[in-house]
Design brief:
Blueprint (H helix, E strand, L loop, with lengths): L2 H21 L5 H30 L3 H26 L5 H25 L6
Helix pairs in contact: 1-2, 1-4, 2-3, 3-4
This protein binds fe (ii) ion (2 copies).
């Protein structure tokens, strides 16, 4: 399995988790909380590993530098949204209103990574 397949699998896993969280109703506070904690840990770990393994080396190339810097900014925005969500009570309607903002940003970011940054010369 190539490292890109691994990244893609990680992206799919996060998307699935976000979808599950959104499907849960206001009353499923405990389950939402546990899925959200998992999502948070995984997204942060994923971003850190990506930065170390790919972003840093890709910064040295003119053709990828800009995309990588943009990707890093999005990692920061994702982390900020995760923090904001952590500060809101899960039973609060505001939480469920804000969550799609995170999902949309993460999905947009992953789409860009897969189409621009991690476009691989796979045979
Ligand atoms: Fe990323
Ligand atoms: Fe990623």
């Amino acid at each position: 399995m190539s490292i890109y397949t691994f990244i893609h699998a990680d992206h799919e896993k996060a998307k699935e988790l976000m979808h599950k969280i959104e499907q849960l109703g206001t009353e499923s506070v405990e389950e939402r909380n546990s899925l959200f904690e998992t999502l948070k840990k995984e997204l942060i770990l994923h971003a850190k590993s990506e930065e170390m393994a790919f972003y840093d080396p890709l910064k040295d190339f003119k053709s990828t530098k800009e995309d990588v810097e943009h990707g890093e900014e999005e990692h920061q925005d994702i982390e900020m949204l995760l923090d904001q969500l952590s500060d809101i009570q899960l039973e609060h309607t505001q939480w469920r209103k804000k969550f799609p903002e995170l999902r949309e940003l993460v999905e947009h970011h992953m789409r860009e990574e897969e189409s621009e940054i991690f476009q691989t010369p796979e045979k």
